Amino acid sequence: CFSANELITYEALGLCEPGKAGEMIDRGDNTYGGKYVVNPSGGLISKGHPLGATGIAQCAELCWQLRGEAGKRQVEGATLALQHNIGLGGASVVGLYAMGFPSHRVRQVGLRKVAAATSEIGFRVTPYFKILEQVMLLDEDNTVDKFRGIFGFKVQKKTGEE
């Protein structure tokens, strides 16, 4: 995750000969267009190095890459991904991920189109939910799906009832 570890790791994983990591970087073999694409998300430092969550952050990025869901960071045609991480006390992990069915690559998350409210009685906010529903249904750029967030609203009637 730190710059010095990058050189050591390339050599330890056999991506280059010992002592040749600097040359590998100078050739651009660790980025887009090179032999390997390393840390297309910017690596763990770009995520704030969240101790305890670094491994799952790597796992998520690799899965998105293999599924073709990494947006501007996408490594075209990715079918194999390697995860490496070191931890406290000498702990180390290396994982290899493979795209099992490249010909069946599809978006894993879809837009769920649901009614804005099951009942309009007593809720002053219903017209606004109807507007949101219409905007989401007409979302030609699929922005809602790309955001991949969860929207939650707590709505109360005039009586305070939810």
In whole angstroms, the N-to-C terminal distance is 46 Å
How are the strands of the largest sheet arranged? Answer: 1-2
The major sheet is characterized as:
2 strands, antiparallel
Topology as H/E string?
HHHHEEHH
According to DSSP, the number of beta strands is 2
Secondary structure elements and pairings:
Elements: H1 3-12, H2 21-26, H3 43-46, H4 54-67, E1 80-86, E2 92-98, H5 126-137, H6 143-147
Antiparallel strand pairs: 1-2
Brief account:
The protein has helices at 3-12, 21-26, 43-46, 54-67, 126-137, 143-147, and strands spanning 80-86, 92-98.
How would you describe what is shown here?
This is propanoyl-CoA C-acyltransferase. It is an enzyme of class 2 (transferase). Keywords: Lipid transport, Lipid-binding, Transport. The protein is α+β, with helices and mostly antiparallel strands and 162 residues long. The protein folds into two domains: 3-102, no CATH class; 109-162, no CATH class. The chain is 31% helix and 9% strand. It contains six helices and two strands, in the order H-H-H-H-E-E-H-H. The protein has helices at residues 3-12, 21-26, 43-46, 54-67, 126-137, 143-147, and strands at 80-86, 92-98. The chain has a two-stranded antiparallel sheet with strand order 1-2. It starts with a helix and ends in a 15-residue tail after the last helix. The mean pLDDT is 80.
